[in-house]
Amino acid sequence: MTSGGVVKQAQFLNVVDRAEAERRFRAAIGELGPVGAEVVPLDAALGRLLAEDVASPVDVPGFDRSNVDGYAVRAADTFGATEHEPRRLRRLPDVVAMGRIPEATVEPNTALAIPTGGAVPRGADAIVMVEHTQLDGDDVLITKAAIPGRSITYAGTDVAQGEVVLRAKERLTSRETGVLAAIGLDHVAVLARPRVAILSTGDEIVPPGQPLPPGAVYDSNARILADAVREAGGEPFLAGIVPDDEAAVRGALVRALAEAHVVLLSGGTSKGPGDLNTRVLAEALEPPGIVVHGVALKPGKPLCLASSAGKPVVVLPGFPTSAIFTFHEFVAPVVRALAGRSERADDTLAARLPFRVTSEHGRTEYVLVRLVSDEHGALVAYPIGKGSGSVTTFSQADGFFIIDERVEMLDAGDVVAIHPVAGSRPRQVDLVVIGSHCVGLDVLLGRLAASGTTSKLIAVGSEAGLAAVRRGECDVAGVHLYDPETGTYNTPFLGPGLELVRGYGRMQGVVFRPGDARFEGKRAEDAVREAARAPGVVMINRNRGSGTRALYDRLLEGARPAGHSVEASSHRAVAAAVAQGRADFGVAIDIVARDRGLGFLPIGEERFDFVVPSARLARTAVRAFLAELASEPARNTLRARGLLA
Ligand SMILES: Nc1nc2c(c(=O)[nH]1)N[C@H]1C(S)=C(S)[C@@H](COP(=O)(O)OP(=O)(O)OC[C@H]3O[C@@H](n4cnc5c(N)ncnc54)[C@H](O)[C@@H]3O)O[C@H]1N2
Ligand code: MOO
């Protein structure tokens, strides 16, 4: 397509809204119900859904059973018996044996010894506990009267033969498999699991366990999708990794269609040159084929929904968060229905936003969050802002909320409805830490976990951590805020009701590739001053609001070399950029410089301290944290990581 010499790329996506996408997809795949049934050994039945009602082939118990150790008697013979006026019965010579129907008959004025679980003999209609008897020669003295039926469970009272004990579609837990065993079944008919083929596509995708060439990416989508399929009641079928090659994708797709009830592909659905999956689908599927390509969602916009003669075929976006999100929104309900489960259970929780959240107009946005509770037990939802490419976002999330396509901004304090993410309930933890992240915190929280104190760490930077601790949303905030006025860290930022707990220092400095004469052997301040004005030097900056950013500003003295606008969000990211040659220098802590084998020019020690609300100092988990921080083994580990006491 050319217009006035400008080549316009083909527009693949024809974006529809979420509801329309769902409507078209469901219309194309039709009514959904269980794909079939199969008989499995009871040992493999846990978690499966019953295919049909189960009626008991036997009575349970199968005989009249004694519930106590004692004597089988005729109740009438015991009437009036007391400690003072016992009734005398003749003890029959036998004892009821377990697992046998006794041959003896209990005649008037006789008693037969019987164990718990033994079959009640003919003639007897009650059992007297051994505690209410005394032996006297060949006689038994009964010291407490029994009414007819005392301590007997009659045959069939638990389950009568022919009674329905479990209903079709019931989920088999250990309680139900126990019942099936009790009625003598060793096999059971369960609903078949729908087979879901999973195909990862892309030249860069490498299976875990193999070396990772530069530019390659481990296949995480296949794993998370396969296990999410299992969680939804399906049976994953891993169809492998296919390169960006039309013939290869077509071959794998045709095989998957022949073997599975549902076919999932991930990657290759947006607009890159390798994104040929939808092209292959358009040719290879039977009608109706592709019904949606592009949904106004974030994440998940390039989602492609199709049907090959009623069989669901979905291309999920390659980005891990987008793939798993769209799976849960569009595919999981289909798998559940094919497995005979209900499509979804959606209870929401109300939670408040701790800060402003903006969103793109015209796209329904799903924001994954972690939940904490404030002083009054009200929930606060911290968005996890790592983007669709993140592989950890989904695993850390407690839930998500939805921003309508017409809304562009939600304010701090706004209340949103949180949908719990599949397979997770908001985790209750002992200690909530919000603020800046530091490897030292990992050490401390790891040691706490080992001694039984659970924690949740929400890394949002020092300033947001301080705000959270002021609002009572956490027990501890990790902060490293530099105050240029006083030249000190953290103390100037405290307010009423907050305590500063001394943490540790981290040596900050300029990092560069070893051997770079522009930095080697110089003082940090001089090296940066010269480099910032030298042609061809590229820096890597830190995000605004970080403690390190203030240091950069001081060092740069107003200069803005190339790379000033590139804001890494962690010390590690700075070191990676320099090590890989994307930048020539940056500011980071010495630990990451050492890990990466970079040169390091020290600037000064940065204090990483902890802010705790005075009101929470007495909490058990806070005391455990403070004790850990002060402990010798923890301090030794911190020192070994280059963190100074
Ligand atoms: N010009 C445009 N570019 C993009 C658009 C757009 O509308 N116009 N959409 C963006 C959005 S939104 C998303 S989401 C992605 C989805 O792209 P694809 O589905 O085509 O996926 P790929 O390009 O193949 O891969 C994206 C990303 O994910 C990684 N990946 C792929 N497969 C796996 C896997 N099995 N395991 C782990 N990671 C995987 C892949 O390496 C890429 O990094 O497109 C945007 N672009
Ligand atoms: O839809 Mo993409 O999933 O926004 O990143």
UniProtKB/TrEMBL annotation:
Pathway: Cofactor biosynthesis; molybdopterin biosynthesis. This is Molybdopterin molybdenumtransferase. It comes from Polyangium spumosum. Belongs to the MoeA family. It is an enzyme of class 2 (transferase). Gene3D superfamilies: MoaB/Mog-like domain, MoeA, C-terminal, domain IV, Molybdopterin biosynthesis moea protein, domain 2, Molybdopterin biosynthesis moea protein, domain 3. Its EC number is 2.10.1.1. It catalyses: adenylyl-molybdopterin + molybdate = Mo-molybdopterin + AMP + H(+). CDD domains: MoeA. Keywords: Magnesium, Metal-binding, Molybdenum, Molybdenum cofactor biosynthesis, Transferase. Residues 197-337 form the MoaB/Mog domain. It comes from the Bacteria. GO terms for biological process: Mo-molybdopterin cofactor biosynthetic process. One of its GO terms (molecular function) is metal ion binding. GO terms for cellular component: cytoplasm. InterPro entries: MoaB/Mog-like_dom_sf (IPR036425), MoaB/Mog_dom (IPR001453), MoeA-like (IPR038987), MoeA_C_domain_IV (IPR005111), MoeA_C_domain_IV_sf (IPR036688), MoeA_linker/N (IPR005110), MoeA_linker/N_sf (IPR036135), PBP_domain (IPR024370).
